[in-house]
Amino acid sequence: MHGALSVAALTLAVAVAVPAGQGGESASISGHVKLTRTRGTPLPSNIYQPRAVGNRSAELPPEIKSVVVYLAGVTFRGALPVSHPAIRQEHEEFMPRVVAITRGSTVDFPNADMIFHNVFSLSGAATFDLGRFPKGQSRSATFTKAGLVKVYCHLHSHMSASILVLDHPYFAIPDLDGSFTLPTVPRGTYKVVGWHERVGERSAIVEVQAGRSASVELVLPVEDSR
Amino acid sequence: MLPQPPRLIVKTLAVTFVTAVLLLVVTFVVVIVIVREQVRASVAANLESSQRMFAAIESRERRELQAQAATVAESPTLKAALDTYAAESRFGNEVVREQLLNTMTRELDKVAARVEADAIVVVDHDQTALAAAGPLADRWPPGRRVASVEASKISDAFDGVVHIENRTFSVVSVPLLLGDGTSIGALYLATSLDRRYAQKLAELARTHTVIVSNGLVVASTLSHDTERQVESLVSTLSTGAGAIELNGESHAFRRLVQVGDTGFYALASIDESARGATTAIMRTLVWIAIGAMSFALLGSIWLANLLSEPIGRLSSSLKAMARSRDFDARVPLTGSSRELDALTETFNRLMASVSAAEAQTEAAYTGAIRALAAALDARDPYTAGHSERVSVLSIGIGRALNLPADDLEVLRLGALLHDIGKIGVPDDVLRKPSALTAAEYDAIKQHPVLGARILRPIPFLSRHIPIVELHHERPDGRGYPHGLHGEDIPLPARIVHVADAYDAMTSARAYRKALPASEAFRELWRCAGTQFHAEIVGALTTALSGVPAATGAPILEAVSA
Fold first, then answer.
1. Are β-strands A160-166 and A98-102 bridged in parallel, bridged antiparallel, or unpaired?
2. Segment holding B51, helix H or strand E
3. What is the mean pLDDT of residues A37-62?
4. Is the bond leading into B457 cis (omega within 30 degrees of zero)?
5. What are the φ/ψ torsions at residue A168 (nearest 5 degrees)?
6. The pLDDT value given to residue B547
């Protein structure tokens, strides 16, 4: 599987362009993430397809929304801005599946289904169990430690979500077309990482010059979601 | 006396025994071959039904295991721990990962007791074992990558076979899935393919079972040595069904199922299955053999007796006949078989014609001799009929002495011939009316020896010769030609001597008249003891008593009567 994935090429094209009308000591990094479809080998198993649970009529979110682009090895000084996103529990799925936040942010988990749900995590960055709650109610969790927090529902074993907690605000989830723009960063050389919860990550080194916005193209293999 | 070739009984026994043994051996071989053929077919049929049963049972067991596995695979904690463990490889620390592994192991431990598997294992999407529980969990150490799970191609009885840590497991696997069908790993329910498993299989199939992987016996219900033999015959086993030779016995085998490199075989000894039937047949045949042999023995003894007993009787009567020279006796019919009776009858007929011919020959001889004697008597008118008369008188004496018929017959002919030697005495001496000179008397005295010499070449007259030769011997030893004494003189010769003298005295001669019987008897009695034997004279007296004192024919008639 990994072997199969490694066949996929990571093309990293770093184009440096001078952004119009920008100057000073900082510039932004923008770019494009491309998920190529690669074939994975399924595990040997011949019977018992996954159990069909409920009426999962909701369309699965596009895979590009499971990608987070962020800078690695960056230290941020000053007050870290916080956000307050929500991960809905709907059609026995966490929506969205991937959320990126800064440390100290709080995530709400509203239940939109007609059934009880639960939220728990076994991750090192945050271990919690928010208990069971019915439709209309919401629980929230505040993440005080950077890392990857995997969230599951104890009632529905197939439900999962990833919350990437970062120490800095230099991250973005690409648009549907794969384009992204990171917040402006000081001049310097950065490592841009494109991360997907299943496929893994690809990185590129970007040199950011004053007044010139850098552009990055990341190609990620992803499992063939059949 | 005993015949040199083997006795009839030996031959009949040999023939019947050989026939019986041959028949039994052929029967035995044919029956054994047929039995073996049938046993082979039934063993093969058994194996085939074993295969079907095995497939059905295993299929059901696998389904149960898969159901169990699928249920366990729905454990949220297990999935969360596994997925988080994978995520922590990038963003977390080892302590957390260790905790997650423990979480998984605990989850597995909870269900291990309720799952019919030797090990329940979680592998990640890379097929690396992460956590295991169950009796053989130690064979699945964390971090150990499972080489491959060979998916079954023949039936759905097995998901696959895994070789790990010198063990071979049959594995049922279900994927651990998250919402969008993402596989984060798999759950294995592993059953060790060991001797215990082979025995369980063997109990179902009621045969030996062998599990062969990559040309090696992984597990079996056979002995270690036999397993080595099986390994040398793997190429034959791979044909699926047939027969192989193990420990000198023919075994039928059938592949129950093949999963990847691993084959499951049922083995059954044809010889062992046939042994019971063969023993029963052998036992029956032994009894039949004993019976047949007894029958053959009795039958051949009876048959041999049927032939040899009458033949023995026939030959002993022949022997007796030959000894007694009694060719008139007839061999009695045995009545045992037509052929033997025909032989006996032919023989009797032959003997009848032989004795008839002999009688004819004897009659011819006797006639010739009688003619000779008559011719002799005719030379001298005074001695005419002398020989006939002496013969009749001698028989009379013999009868008085109670001699057997055989002796009387010899006496009759011997007396008839007693003076045959006088052929060699010249007529002038014989018929001389005056006294004889000494030389002439010597010539006369030669006639007994002469007579004996004449008769000697005739074989059947051998018993008569002593009469001819010795009829002038006297008890006092003064007779001629040998001067024998008393008891040395044979009885017939004594009788003829007395009869001769009596007839001579009661016949007329040229030189005297015939003496009356009384005078002759007086003379005889006077010389009894010296010239004549007294008991013979007595016998003559008895023979002629009551006969009128006369000479000639009347006396003869009286004696003959």
1. parallel
2. helix B8-72
3. 49
4. no
5. -145, 165
6. 56
The most confident of B48-62, B208-222, B260-274, by mean pLDDT? B208-222
Q: What is the DSSP string of B29-49?
A: HHHHHHHHHHHHHHHHHHHHH
> What residues are paired with B188 via a beta bridge?
B121, B173
Please indicate whether, in this complex, the C-beta atoms of B87 and A123 are within 8 angstroms of each other.
yes
Alpha carbon distance B111, A167 (integer Å): 41
Nearest CA in chain B to A197: B87
* pLDDT confidence of residue A58: 55
Nearest CA in chain A to B89: A148
In chain A, how many H helices and how many E strands? 1, 19
User: Does A75 contact B at CB distance below 8 Å?
Assistant: no
Continuous H helices in chain A: 2-7
User: Which residues partner with A14 through β-bridges?
Assistant: A216
Residue B200 pLDDT exceeds 80: yes
Between chains, do B70 and A51 touch, taking CB under 8 Å as contact?
A: yes
Please report which residue ranges of B246-329 form alpha helices under DSSP H: 270-324
For B305-346, write each residue's pLDDT tens digit. Answer: 877 777 787 788 778 877 876 666 777 776 767 877 888 888
pLDDT for A100 equals 95
Q: What is the pLDDT of residues A143-171, one digit of tens each?
A: 999 999 999 999 988 889 999 999 999 99
CA distance B205 to B266: 7
Summarize the confidence of residues A74-88 as an average pLDDT.
90
Contact A207, A16 (CB under 8 A): yes
Q: What is the dihedral of CA B87, B89, B90, B96, to 10 degrees?
A: 80
B70 in reach of chain A (CB within 8 A): yes
Q: Is the CB of B84 less than 8 angstroms away from the CB of A123? A: yes
CA distance B429 to B444: 8
**Which residues are within 8 A (CB) of B461 and not within 5 positions of it... i.e. 6 or more apart?**
B365, B369, B413, B417, B455
By the 10 Å C-beta count (0-12 exposed, 13-18 middle, 19+ buried), B2 is classed as exposed
pTM > 0.80: yes or no: no
Strands A106-110 and A98-102: unpaired
CB atoms < 10 A from the CB of B561, how many?
7
Mapping DSSP onto H, E and C, the string for A131-184 reads EEECCCCEEEEECCCCEEEEEECCCCCCCEEEEEEECCCCEECCCCCCEEECCC
Residue B200, both tokens: 């369980």
A130 pLDDT higher than 90: yes
Rounded Cα gap, residues A95 and A65, in angstroms: 10
CA distance A123 to chain B (A): 6
